[in-house]
UniProtKB/TrEMBL annotation:
GO BP annotations listed: methylation
Gene3D superfamilies for the chain: Vaccinia Virus protein VP39 (3.40.50.150)
Keyword terms: Methyltransferase, Ribonucleoprotein, Ribosomal protein, S-adenosyl-L-methionine, Transferase
Gene: prmB
Positions with biased composition (Low complexity): 10-23
All residue ranges annotated as the Methyltransferase small domain in the record: 181-267
Pfam families for this protein: MTS
Lineage, broadest ranks: Bacteria, Pseudomonadati, Pseudomonadota, Alphaproteobacteria, Hyphomicrobiales
Protein name: 50S ribosomal protein L3 N(5)-glutamine methyltransferase
Region (Disordered), start-end ranges: 1-38
Enzyme class (EC, first level): transferase
A GO molecular-function annotation: protein-glutamine N-methyltransferase activity
GO cellular component: cytosol; ribosome
The EC number(s) this enzyme carries: 2.1.1.298
Length: 352
């Protein structure tokens, strides 16, 4: 089923920015005096902060777009880092404001020029302040993230989903001209190794409608979140979650496809994670000294768990040079996505 691979050459990506110290705590003494009693809209936040962190008087900000502009300015001023599903302050602000207003990201533009109520504005300002003061990823503030337009529950037990594999399943596994497999409907068994929140297993269930999917993680916390997501998406019949170390809980099972976004951050990267990432479980990142501890094991063991026509799709961040150095004999096909160059490879079982 899988097509064999030819290696492609493209440079690895630049380093993420480092977080700067928070500047979001300067409350105005004037603020709050003339405001109506505080009302809270119903939105679950782990930490409710005073929206009057900002010197904004009622009526100063009126439309959704006004709040978007305000958030972008505050994020820029505070040096917030964007590495969790959004890559710029506008997308991040639109996500948080959309969540406060119970709007799917696709609906944001439609309502951009509409007015925000006082109660809604308080929730929005709380979220903007919360993002700056706590440096938590936006997804943890609202317990939600979208991948490919699909919502997933998240909290601090699990890394915030942002894998490029979601996009690549759509662009390279659809049976079309650039597809790496002939027929997505013919895929019967998929393995999502290091599943975290279960996001990739759930997206895979959409790409491969006839497949059953096994998903493994070593973290029981992560699996608790994955269990919730599998339930929310009514996929309990198709996705089985396993607790364990990589392939260990799977016995002799073989798969048409293995997809995996394992921990791959090297020691230097771990020492320099931005504050936002330090709020996430370290075991989701830590790939050992050179980042390849887990990737090495996956490359060594994957063949024993693939059908002869199968293949492995693996995300490795900025480890491409190290992988090419240590595995020069492997014909890895490096795939690009909208926001990444050569951070994910594909290799057919026959080439492993
Ligand atoms: C980078 S996260 C990816 C999570 C999810 N697939 C995603 O893309 O959002 C890596 C995951 O691997 C898990 N993990 C770390 N070591 C593992 C191991 N030896 N076996 C199985 N899972 C492991 C972590 O708990 C974490 O959930």
């Amino acid at each position: 089923m899988a097509k064999t691979t030819k290696a492609k050459t493209k440079a690895a990506t630049s380093k993420p920015a480092k977080a700067k110290p928070s500047t979001g705590k300067n409350k105005s003494a004037q603020r709050g005096k003339d405001r109506p009693a505080k009302r809270r809209a119903a939105i679950a936040m782990p930490l409710l902060l005073e929206h009057d962190t900002f010197a904004v008087m009622p009526g100063e900000l009126v439309t959704v777009l006004d709040f978007l502009r305000f958030a972008v300015s505050r994020f820029a001023e505070a040096g917030v880092v964007f590495a969790h599903g959004t890559t710029d302050p506008i997308a991040e602000a639109a996500f948080l404001i959309g969540e406060a207003l119970h709007l799917h990201p696709d609906q944001f533009e439609m309502f951009a020029t509409t007015r925000v109520t006082f109660a809604e504005s308080e929730v929005i300002l709380d979220l903007i302040a919360g993002r700056i003061v706590t440096r938590l990823p936006a997804a943890y503030l609202v317990n939600k993230i979208y991948m490919r337009g699909v919502p997933f529950y998240v909290d601090e037990r699990v890394i915030v989903p942002r894998s490029y594999i979601g996009e690549l399943l759509d662009s390279h596994f659809d049976g079309g001209e650039t597809s790496l497999i002939d027929d997505p409907d013919a895929v019967e068994r998929v393995l999502d190794l290091c599943t975290g929140s279960g996001c990739l297993a759930i997206l895979a269930s959409r790409s491969f409608p006839n497949a059953t999917i096994d998903a493994v993680d070593l973290s029981t916390d992560a699996l608790a979140v994955a269990t919730r997501n599998v339930g929310d998406h009514h996929l309990g019949e198709r996705i089985t979650l396993h607790h364990g170390d990589l392939f260990a809980p799977l016995g002799e099972a073989r798969y048409d496809l293995i997809i995996t976004n394992p921990p791959y951050v090297d020691a230097d990267g771990m020492a320099n994670l931005p504050a936002e990432c330090r709020a996430e479980p370290a075991m989701a990142f830590d790939g050992g000294d050179d980042g390849l501890d887990i990737v090495r094991r996956i490359l060594a063991e994957a063949k024993d768990h693939l059908t002869p026509e199968g293949g492995l799709l693996c995300e490795v961040g900025r480890c491409r040079p190290a992988i090419e150095h240590h595995f020069p004999h492997l014909p890895l096909l490096w795939l690009d996505s909208e926001d990444s160059d050569g951070e994910v490879f594909w290799i057919a079982a026959a080439d492993l």
